[in-house]
From TrEMBL:
Stored InterPro entries: Alba-like_dom_sf, Pop7/Rpp20, RNase_P/MRP_Pop7_fungi
Cellular localisation: Nucleus
Keyword Lipid biosynthesis on entry: no
Species, as recorded: Calycina marina
Name this polypeptide is given: Rpp20 subunit of nuclear RNase MRP and P-domain-containing protein
A Pfam short name: Rpp20
GO MF annotation list: ribonuclease MRP activity; ribonuclease P activity; RNA binding
GO biological process: intronic box C/D snoRNA processing; nuclear-transcribed mRNA catabolic process, RNase MRP-dependent; rRNA processing; tRNA 5'-leader removal
Gene Ontology CC entries for this record: nucleolar ribonuclease P complex; ribonuclease MRP complex
Keywords, in A-Z order: Nucleus, tRNA processing
Lineage: Eukaryota, Fungi, Dikarya, Ascomycota, Pezizomycotina
SUPFAM superfamilies registered for this protein in UniProt: AlbA-like
Length: 150
């Protein structure tokens, strides 16, 4: 018997311009994901969260209430977070990214552990057709890091 591992199932990558309540900003990290580009991507997503929280300001009316509303929205917008997920060998990479972000003063880092189901196909040695074999579900560990603005 031979085991063929399927890729893990996950939601499609969300647009950076939509709110997290509609679709959370999740980045799936693999062992070969470059460190620097991941840091830049997270910073970009955090800046989009900040700009959505502040909202547009028009200069036609009094600025006082708009600034107060912007500050309140900024506090409410800090609940949005960018989520990094990694399984297996990618857990080390996700931890390295989390340690980097913990050193930054303007963000809050939350680390969560869990497990995710993965589907494997069991096929006979002489038979390469996946459809005729049986499938089994295994659990693999997952590390999830939430990064949000202070």
């Amino acid at each position: 018997q031979k085991i063929c591992k399927r890729p893990l199932l996950h939601a499609p990558i969300a647009s950076p311009y939509t709110t997290s309540s509609i679709s959370p900003k999740t980045l799936y990290i693999s062992p070969s994901t470059p460190f620097a580009s991941t840091i830049k991507r997270v910073r970009t997503l955090l800046s989009h969260i900040e700009s959505r929280a502040s909202g547009p300001i028009s200069f036609s009316s009094k600025l006082g209430p708009q600034i107060t509303a912007g500050i309140k929205a900024r506090r409410d917008g800090s609940k949005e977070e960018v989520i990094l997920k990694g399984t297996g060998r990618a857990i080390e990479k996700v931890l390295g990214i989390a340690v980097y972000w913990q050193g930054q003063a303007d963000v809050v880092v939350r680390v969560r552990t869990g497990s995710v189901g993965a589907v494997d196909d069991v096929v006979e040695n002489g038979n390469d057709e996946v459809e005729t074999g049986e499938s089994r579900v295994r659990r693999t560990s997952c590390l999830e890091v939430g990064i949000s603005l202070r």
